[in-house]
């Protein structure tokens, strides 16, 4: 039966190839985008990746192979990152919408293009091609997460739900993406034992993930006895930075902070840029903000901060007496959003308000706060970078991600962002608390389970007890990408081995 499915699948792809290989490649890339949140159509990946590899088999020209890979990548990134066009649109910067929505996919598509070129240049046999392709694709994803400040958004492994995501505690998201693409090439291997191996492997990993969540997570349901509140005021992006709306917006945050809690609160958490002016310059504003803090506790909020003429986007901790007890300056800034690369050459305005570029902070830190367990602050997309969210030499007890996803509009963006940060909780084995301006705010435990959440544009708050971190350090937190690198090397060795066997057979 599986052999019949294989033949029918190959025939179907070959029929489409006869129509237009480039169009088919773009369609397959677009289909792969459906695997990302909020749809999670992981079952479509074998169609997309196996179909794409069969496309490559029927091309001998390296130029055509390169452009097939580019078109596949363009279809994938355009389909999964279309919402980037909403960021300049909220500021009525219409000239920048095509660049954000289409320009970035154009650039990112070169990663799959070079992957395709390397794959077909290196090997010819089907099984060797699959191993080489998965290895090079995985290397491409890692490079995408590091080159030019990096953008590891929508790695293929993010398609899975909570059970399969548990493997990231061992191999990280890059390792899970490798296994996902490897299984998605199921129809392109032409190997009889491959089908059952893939199915069995997915079942084993899912079973282990389910066991880890349901049977081995008793410590994760415990908490530290520290009660916190997330405030989500859902301020529209169009009015967020306008001076005439400043008082109105601030009063909404304060009103939500003052609502009665069932248990005494240690802190109230507001999202990124919830305060849009430099706080230190206004003592009356400091007093007003301090009034929003619980008695004997503190308020954590996002605001710009000026130091020696340099502007930072920051997380500030203010106690109920009006004393600043903690500060973190965002270190991984968004290109074009918080600063303009090559400022001397590019005269365009950055997407965030104001003419001055933000300056990065010193890097990830473990922030001690009076009355609270130490925390790793992460502002906006700082939480998307694997193995770069906590100080591993001075591990905190929790991670705090404050963000303003109002830029994304009503799109897949906020759901993708939530999925990405919950994986950081699994990788590091510690809870992640997420405060977003208009959603999705969430409390995520050390196994990546979303305990509480506020949806898009929902106005409200979440009162919760801070979950415990795991009593052990996960293998991924200890070893980082070492296992992932080993997996890539194994695939390359297997590709070389199968290629050598194929060459020997052809000489006989």
Account of the 3D structure:
With 508 residues, the protein is an alpha/beta fold. It contains 17 helices and 12 strands. The protein has helices at 2-19, 21-33, 45-57, 62-81, 86-90, 97-108, 110-122, 126-144, 162-165, 168-184, 194-214, 237-240, 246-258, 283-290, 413-428, 475-479, 482-507, and strands at 223-232, 267-269, 298-307, 310-319, 324-329, 367-369, 372-379, 398-403, 432-436, 441-444, 450-454, 460-467. The model has no long low-confidence stretch (mean pLDDT 90).
Order of helices and strands: HHHHHHHHHHHEHHEHEEEEEEHEEEEHH
- How far apart lie the N and C ends? 32 Å
Tally the helices: 17
- CATH topology tier name of the largest domain: Nitrilase/N-carbamoyl-D-aminoacid amidohydrolase
The assigned structural class equals alpha/beta
How many DSSP E strands? 12
- Biggest sheet features: 6 strands, mixed
Q: What Rg do the Cα atoms give?
A: 24 Å
How does CATH name the architecture of the largest domain? 4-Layer Sandwich
CATH domain class of the largest domain: Alpha Beta
Count of distinct structural domains: 2
**Strand arrangement in the largest pleated sheet:** 5-4-3-2-1-12
Poorly predicted runs are none
Estimate percent helicity.
40-55%
* Mean pLDDT over the full residue set: 90
């Amino acid at each position: 039966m599986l052999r019949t499915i294989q033949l029918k699948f190959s025939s179907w792809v070959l029929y489409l190839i006869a129509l237009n290989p480039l169009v088919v490649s773009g369609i397959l890339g677009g289909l792969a985008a459906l695997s990302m949140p909020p749809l999670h159509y992981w079952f479509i990946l074998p169609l997309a990746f196996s179909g794409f590899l069969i496309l490559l088999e029927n091309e001998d020209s390296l130029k055509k192979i390169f452009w097939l890979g580019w078109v596949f990548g363009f279809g994938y990134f355009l389909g999964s990152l279309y919402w980037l066009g909403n960021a300049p649109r909220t500021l009525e910067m219409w000239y920048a919408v095509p660049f954000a929505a289409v320009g970035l996919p154009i650039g990112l598509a070169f990663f799959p293009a070079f992957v395709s070129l390397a794959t077909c240049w290196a090997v010819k046999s089907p099984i060797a091609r699959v191993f080489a392709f998965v290895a090079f694709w995985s290397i491409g994803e890692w490079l995408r997460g590091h080159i030019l400040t990096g953008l590891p958004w929508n790695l293929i492994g993010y398609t899975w739900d909570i059970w399969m995501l548990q493997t990231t505690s061992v191999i990280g998201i890059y390792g899970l993406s490798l296994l996902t693409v490897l299984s998605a090439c199921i129809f392109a291997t032409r190997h009889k034992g491959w089908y059952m191996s893939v199915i069995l492997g997915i079942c084993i990993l899912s079973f282990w993930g389910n066991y880890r969540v349901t049977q081995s997570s008793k410590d994760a349901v415990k908490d530290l006895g520290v009660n916190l509140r997330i405030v989500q005021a859902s301020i529209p992006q169009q009015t967020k930075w306008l001076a005439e709306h400043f008082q109105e917006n601030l009063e909404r945050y304060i009103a939500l902070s003052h609502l009665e809690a069932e248990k005494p609160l240690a802190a109230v958490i507001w999202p990124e840029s919830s305060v849009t002016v430099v706080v230190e310059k206004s003592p009356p504003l400091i007093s007003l903000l301090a009034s929003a803090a619980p008695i004997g506790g503190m308020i954590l909020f996002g605001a710009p901060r000026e130091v020696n003429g340099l502007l930072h986007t920051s997380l500030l901790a203010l106690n109920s007496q009006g004393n600043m007890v903690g500060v973190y300056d965002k270190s991984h800034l968004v290109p074009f959003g918080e600063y303009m690369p090559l400022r001397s050459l590019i005269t365009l305005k950055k997407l965030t308000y104001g003419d001055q570029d933000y300056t990065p902070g010193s890097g990830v830190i473990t922030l001690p706060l009076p009355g609270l367990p130490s925390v790793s602050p992460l502002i906006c997309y700082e939480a998307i970078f694997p193995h770069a969210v906590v100080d591993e030499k001075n591990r905190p007890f929790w991670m705090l991600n404050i963000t303003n996803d109002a830029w994304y509009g009503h799109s897949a963006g906020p759901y993708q962002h939530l999925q990405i940060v919950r994986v950081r909780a699994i990788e590091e084995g510690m809870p992640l608390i997420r405060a977003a301006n208009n959603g999705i705010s969430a409390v995520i435990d050390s196994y990546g389970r979303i305990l509480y959440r506020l949806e898009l544009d929902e106005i409200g708050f979440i009162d919760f007890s801070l979950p415990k971190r795991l009593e052990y350090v996960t293998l991924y937190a200890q070893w980082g990408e070492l296992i992932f690198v080993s997996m890539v090397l194994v695939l390359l060795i297997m590709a070389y081995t199968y290629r050598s066997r194929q060459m020997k057979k052809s000489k006989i």
